[in-house]
Amino acid sequence: MTPERQQGTYISIRTAVRRSGLSEEIVHECVMRQIVADPLTDDDLRELRRVRRLQELGVNLQGIEVIMHMRQQIQALRAEMDRMQHLFGSPTFGSPSWEEIDAEWRRLPPGREEYGSER
Length: 119
Hints:
Blueprint: E1 10-11, H1 13-20, H2 24-32, E2 40-41, H3 42-56, H4 61-88, H5 98-107
Antiparallel strand pairs: 1-2
């Protein structure tokens, strides 16, 4: 389920089963676990195809749920970074780039990356 849901054509569970290659039970399970939304859209169909590929790689449904939700969080963070970059513009001379900020972030010692952590 993507952060900004596409408006327009919805597809039935039966169509999603046929077009994704998953069983009806798995599609219902994906809806229940909020991997995709109900009613289903073409975006959800793409997510169901990702679920099928992960299953083919041997990942169980619990693992797929974690992977898909993490992917959604990454997409939301990227969208927020893009929004921030649009608001504040590209870094000026002497200001760190997003890549430099990211590199510094990865160098932080474990446990120090959270805001407002108790000391």
